[in-house]
């Protein structure tokens, strides 16, 4: 009998308990380690279900061409021809490698000369600046004293004018009845649309996702502080925003492969970036405890319209409401804030003291439900909390994770919630408020950093030690892993993942400062168009 994979007589035959098919042992072991299923039937399969067969030693018959001297001479001639062709190909590769090395050495030499010149200019500029400061210092002493006195006076007045409650905290206007009505009407409209929703015909099929590969890699952030920790996509313009460890947010135009704008202003890493789909706005949250609201202009630049300083610890997440008029921020200070986008005003700041002995739990992730009346948050204490936005009440809690909940994502149908933590990904049924599936991964040292449902609710992407795409099914159905991408950054840590329009591509950020685009070959900018 022949191997079901290679079609040849196996040297180490094994048979599947499930299908009864015969395989070569080394081939089926490799297939199961990569895909975890039978290559013929597609059913889940493990090595425990493979049984080795004991057979006598197989003696392969001598080929017909080796039965005569002319045949053997022909075989030797063919082998010699193949050896010569291989040798010629190796010589060509060696020549190309030498040319590339020569070009690289020339570029390195030129770069060293440029660096030396820039260092010389820098030292000269520092010397001139030091000389100018020594001349200006005596003249500005009296002005500085007056300015300090004025600032002190203004600071006192600001502290006196600030509205504080009896507990010393800022008073918030709250979510008014008019806003609640607006949120309720938005919820009703979206719920009605969802009942009529159909999966778009333009959605990438499973067969296409299985053939996805890396299309391009773009080094968007600084080499001194590498790492992309957050990303979002403006689907109407096909622009990707990334937040980096280098304190910058970068806007990248995917079709052209060019950087549109670099937003500087935060003093620590940008932990969250979110587009407001109306009004050309971007909201960024940072470990410097601030939130910034950026307004785009016609020339492509973005100006900081508001700097929000309502949190007292790192801002870990930003999520935009479906009305595009409000957004929520979540922080390690154990509060989440509800903001009005137009004014930048914090309408309410919510702290949950329902933890053990009233202990506060820092928030590490947050996301609005697609209908907008439910908010999901993940905490540093491995809890997932569900909130009623209208009353700001905690209406449900999900436990079972290990480590901080790093990311959460609601499915477009509104039924499922995916949460990521150190121990993997859990799927929750919001109708019954229970966990119905858990994905655990082999690398116990690398947490799962990001989860994302595509806009149709057909696929789920997971980023951690690698990037995996699952086909969304029912509660009882099988959520099959459609594709696994290795972490090409070399850091062993993919930090964020997001589906493009109709899942036609997948954007991935990692700790090597590169934004990677995965899709079908020919659908995106090539490596030569990558930003350098």
Total of helices: 4
Task: Supply Rg.
Answer: 30 Å
Major sheet size, sense and barrel closure: 4 strands, antiparallel
Distance between the termini: 55 Å
Instruction: Kindly report the average pLDDT value.
Output: 85
* Form type: globular
Summing up helix and strand content along with how strands pair, one would put the structural category as alpha+beta
* Strand line-up of the largest beta sheet: 4-31-30-29
- The unreliable regions are 141-162, 528-532
Total beta strands: 31
Helical content band: 10-25%
Percentage beta strand? 25-35%
Organism: Dipteronia dyeriana
Domain U-box: 1-70
Subcellular location: Nucleus
GO cellular component, one term: Prp19 complex
Structure overview:
With 532 residues, this protein is an alpha+beta fold. The chain is built from four helices and 31 strands. It has helices at 25-35, 69-161, 177-196, 206-209, and strands at 13-16, 22-24, 50-52, 213-219, 228-234, 239-244, 249-253, 258-263, 270-276, 281-286, 291-296, 302-308, 315-320, 326-331, 335-340, 345-351, 363-368, 374-379, 384-388, 393-398, 407-410, 416-421, 424-429, 434-439, 450-453, 459-463, 466-471, 481-486, 494-499, 505-510, 514-519. The strands form eight sheets. A four-stranded antiparallel sheet has the order 4-31-30-29, with no helix packed on it. Strand 23 (424-429) and strand 24 form a beta hairpin. The longest helix has 93 residues, at 69-161. It is globular. It starts with 12 loop residues before the first strand and ends in a 13-residue tail after the last strand. 34% of the residues are buried.
């Amino acid at each position: 009998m022949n191997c079901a994979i290679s079609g040849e007589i196996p040297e180490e035959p094994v048979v599947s308990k499930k299908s009864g098919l015969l395989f070569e042992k080394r081939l089926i072991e490799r297939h199961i380690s990569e895909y975890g299923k039978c290559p013929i039937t597609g059913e889940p399969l493990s090595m425990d279900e493979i049984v080795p067969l004991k057979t006598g030693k197989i003696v392969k018959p001598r080929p017909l061409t080796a039965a005569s001297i002319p045949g053997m001479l022909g075989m030797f001639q063919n082998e010699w021809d193949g050896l010569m062709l291989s040798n010629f190909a190796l010589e060509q590769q060696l020549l190309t490698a030498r040319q590339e090395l020569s070009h690289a050495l020339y570029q390195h030499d030129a770069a060293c000369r440029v660096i030396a010149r820039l260092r010389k200019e820098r030292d000269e500029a520092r010397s001139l600046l030091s000389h100018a400061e020594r001349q200006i210092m005596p003249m500005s002493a009296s002005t500085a004293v007056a300015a300090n006195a004025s600032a002190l006076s203004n600071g006192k007045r600001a502290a006196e004018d600030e509205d504080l409650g009896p507990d010393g905290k800022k008073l918030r206007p709250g979510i008014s009845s008019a806003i609640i009505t607006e949120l309720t009407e938005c919820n009703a409209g979206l719920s009605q649309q969802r009942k009529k929703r159909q999966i778009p015909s333009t959605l990438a099929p499973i067969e296409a996702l299985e053939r996805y590969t890396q299309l391009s890699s773009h080094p968007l952030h600084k080499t001194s502080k590498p790492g992309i920790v957050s990303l979002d996509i403006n689907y109407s313009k096909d622009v990707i925003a990334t937040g980096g460890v280098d304190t910058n947010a970068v806007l990248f135009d995917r079709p052209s492969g060019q950087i549109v704008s670099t937003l500087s202003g935060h003093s620590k890493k940008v932990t969250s970036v979110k587009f407001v789909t109306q009004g050309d706005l971007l909201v960024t949250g940072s470990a410097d405890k601030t939130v910034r609201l950026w307004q785009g202009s016609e020339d492509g630049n973005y100006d900081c319209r508001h700097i929000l300083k309502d949190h007292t610890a790192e801002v870990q997440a930003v999520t935009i409401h479906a009305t595009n008029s409000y957004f929520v921020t979540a922080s390690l200070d154990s509060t989440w804030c509800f903001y009005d986008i137009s004014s930048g005003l914090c309408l309410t700041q919510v702290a949950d003291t329902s933890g053990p002995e009233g202990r506060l739990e820092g928030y590490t992730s947050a996301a609005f439900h697609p209908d907008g009346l439910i908010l999901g948050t993940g905490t540093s204490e491995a809890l997932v909390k569900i909130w009623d936005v209208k009353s700001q009440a905690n209406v449900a809690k999900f436990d079972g994770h290990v480590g901080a909940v790093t990311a959460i994502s609601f499915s477009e149908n509104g039924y499922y919630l995916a949460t990521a933590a150190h121990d993997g990904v859990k799927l929750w049924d919001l109708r019954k408020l229970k966990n119905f599936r858990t994905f655990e991964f082999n690398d116990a040292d690398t947490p799962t950093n990001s989860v994302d449902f595509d806009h149709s609710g057909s696929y789920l992407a997971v980023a951690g030690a690698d990037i995996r795409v699952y086909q969304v099914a029912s509660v009882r159905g099988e959520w099959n892993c459609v594709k696994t991408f290795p972490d090409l950054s070399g850091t062993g840590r993919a930090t964020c993942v997001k589906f493009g329009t109709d899942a036609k591509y997948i954007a991935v950020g990692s700790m090597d400062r590169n934004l990677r685009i995965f899709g079908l070959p020919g659908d995106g900018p090539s490596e030569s168009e990558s930003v350098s």
